[in-house]
Design brief:
single chain; 341 residues; Rossmann fold; 3 domains; 5-stranded mixed β-sheet; 4-stranded parallel β-sheet; 22% strand; flat
């Protein structure tokens, strides 16, 4: 076994880190595979590969959702007694304040290697020229990073000034793109769906254009961000005009536990006259929030585990639910939006 990539349909899985462990380990291994829902189709391909290996490998497949490398199935791994967690689709999460060291974790990046219609490139160039976006960044999630480089090369050869952002973006981290805000006319994000581009549009002062290679679509993310911002400013207004009982929700997933952030927000809240209730949650959804609110009758909530929960999943809750950045902006009386922390 000396190959570094495993081809699974239109995707390539970088399996070198896993192969290294298999080569260096003499005993049979019990492995738990975890992937986001959009990449769970890789399970069968990788399982078949492992079953053909020269070593005995017992494979378990996590059906639980995965929202990134910040969300590892450590509880499942402990119950199963596995020797290794294999997380598919992301690199190690760099923003974690708390390290999980009990069971080794190996990260297998996945890269989209499908064919993109030429019309996508033509449409992208047209949109950029119509809007006079001549100085641009091109970024992506890890999965689309190879395609991102192809798009960057195409735009560079077409006369655009291109900053090819090498580090993948996350839904809660865009600093490697934002450093170019003063240099560019717009940011381009190559990724499927709305999640990642929307986060950048909420963070940046420059227009954001989404490039969805799966839908063959070029679209204005900033238009969607304006709608979201109106809702978020309304939530801040509601929170400012409610009572003083605050639920500070603390993430119980190991990489979503942010003790420094929790301590800072609690101190800020107490100094601002709030009574703080510490609430822990592994997974947080509307039903969990309803249950705790029925019990405590709090006035507002601040989620420290993931800043996308209030924006994407809890925005219709009947009481204000804020991100850390939104709460900070509210307490300090700032007139600008802070995302994410």
């Amino acid at each position: 076994m000396n190959q570094e990539f495993l081809t699974c349909g239109s995707y390539e899985v970088y399996i070198a880190p896993l192969l290294k462990i298999l080569r260096e380990t003499e005993k049979p291994l019990r492995i738990l595979l975890q992937a986001p829902d959009g990449l769970k189709h890789v399970y069968e391909c990788l399982s078949l590969f492992l079953s053909d290996s020269t070593r005995r490998v017992e494979v378990y497949l996590s059906a639980s959702p995965s929202f990134g490398a910040c969300d590892l199935p450590v509880d499942e791994a402990v119950v199963l007694g596995v020797d290794l967690i294999v997380h598919i689709g992301h690199e190690k999460y760099e923003l974690a304040e708390y390290e999980w060291n009990n069971i080794p974790v190996v990260y297998l990046p996945v890269f989209y290697n499908g064919v993109v219609d030429e019309s996508l490139f033509i449409n992208l160039r047209r949109v950029l020229e119509e809007n006079k976006y001549y100085r641009i960044t091109v970024s992506s999630s890890l999965v689309e990073s190879k395609l991102k480089s192809k798009i960057a090369e195409y735009l560079l050869s077409s006369g655009f000034t291109v900053y090819n952002v090498s580090k993948p973006i996350l839904g809660c981290f865009y600093s490697n793109v934002l450093v170019y805000d003063r240099e560019v006319d717009a940011h381009l994000v190559v990724v499927g769906g709305v999640f990642h581009p929307l986060g950048l549009a909420l963070s940046s002062s420059k227009p954001v254009v989404g490039i969805d290679p799966y839908m063959n679509r070029v679209w204005s993310v900033s238009e969607e961000a304006v709608k979201v911002l109106k809702r978020r400013f309304y939530e801040i207004y509601r929170a400012r005009n409610t009572g003083s009982k605050l639920g500070l929700i603390i993430g119980a997933r190991f990489a979503q536990y942010r003790p420094k952030l929790v301590e800072y927000l609690e101190r800020l809240a107490v100094d601002s006259g709030y009574r703080v209730y510490r609430v822990t949650a592994g997974y947080l959804d509307v039903n969990r929030l309803v249950a705790i609110d029925d019990a405590l009758k709090l006035d507002l909530y601040v989620v420290t585990s993931c800043p996308r929960l209030p924006i994407d999943d809890l925005n219709e809750f009947y009481k204000p639910v804020l991100t850390p950045g939104e709460f900070i902006a509210m307490v300090r009386g700032l007139d600008r939006y802070i995302y994410p922390w």
